[in-house]
């Protein structure tokens, strides 16, 4: 497979830590300018942005709370306002929490869904018109490997205060809802077309 060429393209990654940082570097090396969102980890996002700039590409860091509908639209608008286009959206924002099933509250559930699932949909919805204007684009949704592993996460160490009850996490909660064009974080991502229907 040939090397991906994203010269002159603009990418937005919701999250600039851990795997998001690696994705940002990969996209930059392929020629893309990269925007990163963060909620509380500004230093990590700035560090990733410096890596992108060091490769010779433009980078911007945008603070956003993607549990809020207005912030999902704003981050897309910010990228388009700065660079005039958006070609790639990578939805990676997620809450990393571990709560036992019997202790999970409706507020916990809604908080997880609002970031892991709803934000991906809202960001995609905001991005699609800009991608259609360019006659194409790519939207990649990441989910955690645990959902694909089919292995429940359990508290098994009673010596550390564990109860042995099943836990939920960002991985398992996210896997309950629908996903579009997504795979495990440890597998290749897939895409869906943003072009208009014929």
What proportion of the residues form beta strands (DSSP E)?
15-25%
Strand order of the largest sheet: 3-2-1-4-6-8
Question: Taking all residues together, what is the mean pLDDT?
Answer: 78
Superfamily (CATH H level) name: NAD(P)-binding Rossmann-like Domain
What shape does the CA trace take?
globular
**What pattern of helices and strands is seen along the backbone?**
EHEHEHEEHEHEHE
What is the CA-CA span between the terminal residues? 30 Å
CATH class: Alpha Beta
Q: Which structural class do the helices and strands define?
A: alpha/beta
State the major sheet.
Answer: 6 strands, parallel
Our count of domains comes out at 1
Task: Determine the fraction of residues in helical runs and give it as a percent range.
Answer: 40-55%
CATH fold node name:
Rossmann fold
Regions with little confidence, pLDDT below 50 for 5+ residues: 155-198
How many separate helices? 6
Query: What CATH architecture do you see?
Result: 3-Layer(aba) Sandwich
What's the number of extended β-strand segments? 8
Radius of gyration, rounded? 18 Å
């Amino acid at each position: 497979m040939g090397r991906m060429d994203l010269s002159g393209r603009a990418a937005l990654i919701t999250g600039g830590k851990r795997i998001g940082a690696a994705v940002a570097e990969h996209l930059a090396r392929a020629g893309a300018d990269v925007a990163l969102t963060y909620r509380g980890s500004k230093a990590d996002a700035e560090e990733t942005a410096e890596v992108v700039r060091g490769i010779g590409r433009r980078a911007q860091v945008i603070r956003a709370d993607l549990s809020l509908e207005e912030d999902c639209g704003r981050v897309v608008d910010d990228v388009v306002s700065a660079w005039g286009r958006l070609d790639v959206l990578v939805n990676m924002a997620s809450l990393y929490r571990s709560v036992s099933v019997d202790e999970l509250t409706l507020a916990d559930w809604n908080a997880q869904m609002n970031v892991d699932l709803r934000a991906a949909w809202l960001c995609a919805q905001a991005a699609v018109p800009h991608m259609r204007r360019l006659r194409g684009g790519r939207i990649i949704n990441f989910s955690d490997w645990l959902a694909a592993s089919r292995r429940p996460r359990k508290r098994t160490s009673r010596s550390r205060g564990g109860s042995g009850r099943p836990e939920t996490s960002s991985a398992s909660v996210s896997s309950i809802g629908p996903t579009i064009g997504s795979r495990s974080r440890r597998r290749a991502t897939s895409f869906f077309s943003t072009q208009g229907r014929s």
